[in-house]
Amino acid sequence: MAMAMAICAQLSSSSPLFHPQITKKPFLLPSPAATISVHGFSTLRPKSLSLSHRSSISASAASSTVDVNEPVKKSVRTLPFRVGHGFDLHRLEPGYPLIIGGIDIPHDRGCEAHSDGDVLLHCVVDAILGALGLPDIGQIFPDSDPKWKGAASSVFIKEAVRLMDEAGYEIGNLDATLILQRPKISPHKETIRSNLSKLLGADPSVVNLKAKTHEKVDSLGENRSIAAHTIILLMKK
Ligand SMILES: [Zn+2]
């Protein structure tokens, strides 16, 4: 989670945010033969990551690499259920759109990020990846890769769902909590939930969304940031 936060900080610190746009380009994950640097996130190769091809990923002498596939091998072996948690936070800045769950929410500020800064979709992706025992969103979709600049976060969701499906799991249920001081989410909650369900290919009854303020304290409470938590239960198909 700390890593995810660090990555989001990296995303936030990169300059201009683009409005979300649907990319028609094929979406690719790193090759299983690629070495993923925990600290650099820059050594991913733009080839498809397949859970069914689990060649080993080398560990460097500096032990700064992770084996993408080793946890998956364990995870898909026998477990009938897997739980994942996702957390994300973005800084809010004037002049940017506020995209939550793929929906453009009217507000006086939005997320400055490498992608569209969709805090909800990012943490749902991390929850799915976490449940599968995969590296987090920042490792799989590195902000150093220009192809994710301004990307609609729905592409990350679709890829996470593909990986879940490939591993033989489906969504049991999902519970997400948005934390922001403003604007009020209640008028948009059903639209967001419905869109999230659609993106996940899940029945809306298993996708829950809550929202709360931060009691006007800290950056969240001062309308300077937005955060989200997600817990997801995956079930073996
Ligand atoms: Zn994010």
UniProtKB/TrEMBL annotation:
One of its GO terms (biological process) is isopentenyl diphosphate biosynthetic process, methylerythritol 4-phosphate pathway. Residues 81-234 form the 2-C-methyl-D-erythritol 2,4-cyclodiphosphate synthase domain. InterPro entries: MECDP_synthase, MECDP_synthase_CS, MECDP_synthase_sf. GO terms for molecular function: 2-C-methyl-D-erythritol 2,4-cyclodiphosphate synthase activity; metal ion binding. It comes from the Eukaryota. Pathway: Isoprenoid biosynthesis; isopentenyl diphosphate biosynthesis via DXP pathway; isopentenyl diphosphate from 1-deoxy-D-xylulose 5-phosphate: step 4/6. GO terms for cellular component: chloroplast. It catalyses: 4-CDP-2-C-methyl-D-erythritol 2-phosphate = 2-C-methyl-D-erythritol 2,4-cyclic diphosphate + CMP. Its cofactor is a divalent metal cation. It is found in: Plastid, Chloroplast. PANTHER family: 2-C-METHYL-D-ERYTHRITOL 2,4-CYCLODIPHOSPHATE SYNTHASE, 2-C-METHYL-D-ERYTHRITOL 2,4-CYCLODIPHOSPHATE SYNTHASE, CHLOROPLASTIC. Belongs to the IspF family. Homotrimer. This is 2-C-methyl-D-erythritol 2,4-cyclodiphosphate synthase. It comes from Brassica cretica.
